[in-house]
Amino acid sequence: MTTAQLYTKLDSLPDNLKSEVNDFIDFLLIKSNKSKKTNKAKFGSAKGFFEMSDDFDEPLEDFKEYMEWISFLICLVYMVSMDKVYPISKMEYTYLTSYLKNPTNAPAKAKKQ
């Protein structure tokens, strides 16, 4: 369809329909401008915007009490799973928590006296 044909059809419309056509043309123009502006982010496009500290993976001091509580609960679950449901001593708790935090450097298991 040529521009001249569009003008002829538009000219033959009543004024109220011309207004609707005008609104529709505005809508189409806005829609086409929005689709042109949406660019997808490219991999690496944010390089240099963020910096990660060297101690990012280190435990946070704010969560120290929480982590101790979780370690205690894990110890209790461990003790129950070993059919040792009586309360554990401070020595057993210390051993288990140190083992859970770092299994390779856990202290030697305390012997009962």
What does the secondary structure layout of this molecule look like, with pairings?
Blueprint: H1 3-11, H2 15-37, H3 64-81, H4 90-101
Helix pairs in contact: 3-4
Brief overview, please?
By secondary structure, this protein is mainly α.
Structural key phrases:
single chain, 113 residues, mainly alpha, 4 helices, 0% strand
Structural overview:
The protein is an all-alpha fold and 113 residues long. It has a domain at 83-113. Helix content is 55%, strand content 0%. The protein has helices at residues 3-11, 15-37, 64-81, 90-101. Helix 3 crosses helix 4. The radius of gyration is 36 Å and the shape is rod-shaped. It starts with a helix and ends in a 12-residue tail after the last helix. The mean pLDDT is 77.
- What is the straight-line distance between the termini? 100 Å
Largest sheet: none
Beta-strand percent range = under 5%
Q: What is the string of SSEs from the N terminus onward?
A: HHHH
Overall geometric form: rod-shaped
Mean pLDDT: 77
Count of helical regions = 4
What level of helicity do the residues show? Answer: 40-55%
Rg, nearest Å:
36 Å
Tell me the total number of β-strands. Answer: 0
Low-confidence stretches: none
Structural class: mainly alpha
